[in-house]
Amino acid sequence: xxxxxxxxxxxxxxxxxxxxxxxxxxxxxxxxxxxxxxxxxxxxxxxxxxxxxxxxxxxxxxxxxxxxxxxxxxxxxxxxxxxxxxxxxxxxxxxxxxxxxxxxxxxxxxxxxxxxxxxxxxxxxxxxxxxxxxxxxxxxxxxxxxxxxxxxxxxxxxxxxxxxxxxxxxxxxxxxxxxxxxxxxxxxxxxxxx
Length: 194
Ligand SMILES: C[S@@+](CC[C@H](N)C(=O)[O-])C[C@H]1O[C@@H](n2cnc3c(N)ncnc32)[C@H](O)[C@@H]1O
Known about the structure:
Layout: H1 13-23, H2 31-41, E1 48-52, H3 58-66, E2 72-77, H4 80-90, E3 96-100, H5 103-109, E4 115-120, H6 130-135, E5 137-145, H7 158-170, E6 175-180, E7 186-191
Parallel strand pairs: 1-2, 1-4, 2-3, 4-5
Antiparallel strand pairs: 5-7, 6-7
Helix pairs in contact: 1-4, 2-3
Bound molecules: S-adenosylmethionine.
S-adenosylmethionine (SAM) binds at residues 27-29, 51, 53, 55, 58-59, 76-79, 82, 102-103, 121-124.
């Protein structure tokens, strides 16, 4: 067995990857991450999903592929040019709402425990505004992050921030978490029932 041979990508992905390449966008999620997101998405029928950092729509496509017909996904990005790629390829899907906004401002407006699944793929909601992002995860809901293993595009001084984030998530009494040194390095955290 290997990590990817048995994974069929979403039909929408090829178009998004072509646009991603044209735009020179190098921060898109990899297939293994997408496959995990899709698998976990399938565990939340009727779920409310949030992606922070749409990029060109790569993880958005994988999430939609795992969600059932009654689930809803909101995806937020400040970069309207990148997000336009997601709109072109996925905008026909009535389950998806694309919002062009700063993730921190968006998070401040969200009610507590409003989401079953948060994929936090921007600095805000992860290294900044972490409490705002965790606050909106309901009991049994997922908070997922990637890019936790060293990446060539990490800014100077990012490594200690990664370790600090891992420590914070590992010691929160209201979440159970598992770090996975796999793909770009993921953390899956679940809000415990209170
Ligand atoms: C790692 S990329 C997202 C990749 C995407 N989720 C995927 O699966 O391919 C991070 C994204 O965060 C966006 N971003 C940066 N600052 C932001 C902010 N303050 N609010 C919302 N999005 C932001 C960037 O424009 C970029 O598209």
